[in-house]
Write the C-alpha cells for this entry.
Amino acid sequence: MARSSSEAAAARPPDSLTEKSPMPSIRWTTAHLFRASCSALLVALVLLAGVGAVNRDHEPVELSLYDVQPRHFSDVIELTGNVEPLKSETVSSECRWSTTILSIVPEGTWVQKGDIVCVLDSSEVEEFLRARDVPLIRARATLEGSVQDEELLKSANERRLAQSKFAAQTALNERDQYLHATHPQLLDKLEQDLSLWQEQLESAREEFAYTERLWAQGFVNHRTLDQANFILQQKTEGVRKLQADLFLSNEFTHPRNELRLQFRASNADRDVLRTEIMNSLAETKARLTTLANERRVQIYERYVNSARESIAACTMKAPSDGQVIYANSWYDLSRGRRSVEEGKRAYFQQPIFRIPDERHKKVTVSLHESLITRVRIGTPVSVQLKGFEETPVAGEIVHISNYPKSRSYYTPDVRDYYLDIQLKPTPEQASIIRLKMDANVTISLFEDVDALTVPNESVVGVGGRNFVWVYEDAGLQPRAIQVGESNDEAVCVTAGLREGDRIAVQLTPQQRSGLQEYAQNMISGL
C-alpha cells in the first residue's frame, strides 16, 4: 500500500525540508546551532485522524512535527554597562564647608602624584577662622585663670584642713592629759593634804585634851587653853575644807571638766569632717569650672582646627600617577547635568575626581533580583565592546552587591543587584579598551550540552502541569511532561519524553483546545 504524502515527506531526509517546510524559522539562543537542528527535524504531515484535538469533519490540516533529540541548551541574558576601572583612588572634598570649585584640570589630564588637580574657594572658611581666633584666645585665658584658682584653692584647703586636724589633736591631748594626769594628780594631792590635816587634827585634839587637864589642875592658865582650842578649831576647819574640796572635785568639777574636754575633742573631730566636706565641695566646684572652660576651649579649638584643615583641604592633589576622571554620577550625566566642573558647588565628602588604575578594568551591570540566585562570584561571562563586537572579551564576576536598589523612583518594586565584572582581555584587546566604552555583557544562567528540549509553543500548561501532543502510530496522543530550565524559545524536558519521540509544534487552535480539555479531564479525574 502506498504511503501518504505526509508520511513520504516525513521519510525524506531532514535536509530536504529546509527550504520546503512551511513552518517559520525558530530563533534559539545559540541560533546557528539550534536552527539547523530544528529545521532538519521538522516535517509536514496531513493527518485525518487524531485523539481529541483533530476534527475529522474538517479538511486535513498541515502539521509540523519536532523530533526530540539531545541538544545543546543554554539560557543567557544580555546586559549593558560601561567600561570602568576595577580599582581607582577617589579624592573627595574634605572641606567641611560647602564651597565653589575655583579650578580643576581638564578631564583626562595625566598627572603625577602630588600634583594640584583641583582648588576650592576657601575665602568663606578663612573669614570664619579669623572670627574664631579672638574667642579662642579669651577662652584659653579664662582656662588658665581657672586652673590657677583651682591650685590656690587646693593650697588653702590643705592649710585649713591641717589647722582643723591640729585643733582636733590638741583637744584630744588636753582631754587625755586631764583624765590621766591633771585630775589624778589633783585628787592625789587633796587626799594627801586631807590625810596630813587629819593627823594634825588628831594631834591638836590630844594637845587640847592634855592642856585642858593641865588647866584643870592649875598648871596652865586659861590663855594657854584658848590657844590649844584655837589650834584645834583651825585644824578641824582645815580638814572640813579639804573634805569639801575633795567632794566638790569628785562630784562636780571632774564630771564638768571631763564633759567639756570630751565635747571639745568630739567637736574638733566633726570640724575636721566638715572641713574635708567643704574642701571637697569647693574643689569640685572649681574643677567643674575648669572642665567647663576646658570644654569651651576644645570647642573653639575644634572650630579653628576644622577651619584650618578645611583651608588645607581646598587644595586637592593627586594621590597617585594617572589620568584625572571627574566624579560625575551616571544619573546626572544621563540628564545632561554635571556636578563637577569649575563654578559648581562642592559639599563635604563629595567625590571630586578619581585616578583610575589603567591596568585592570571592569563593567558594572544591573541584574533583576529574580535572577540573582542564578549567578555567583567567579561565573565567567562574555563582553562585547561597542565597535569591536567581533572580538568578545572574556570576563568574570568578581563582586555582587549585598542589597538591591530600586530601579527608579517611579518603579520602587523593581529592584536590581549590581554586578562587577572584571575584564580579562588579551594583549591585543587590552590595547583597544578605553574607559567609558559601552559594553554588552552576556551571562550564561544555565547550560547543558545534552538536554532534551522542546519548543515553547508545543507545551500547554493546565493546573500547574504541562502537556504536549506526541505523534504515535500515525496519530497524536496527549502526554504529560515535566519541565526544567527554559529560555525564550525552548524548554528542557526532565520526564515524560525520550529520545526519538516526535511532538507537534505550532499547534492549531483545535489542537490546543483539545489538549487543554484532555488535561483538565485528567486533572479532575485524579
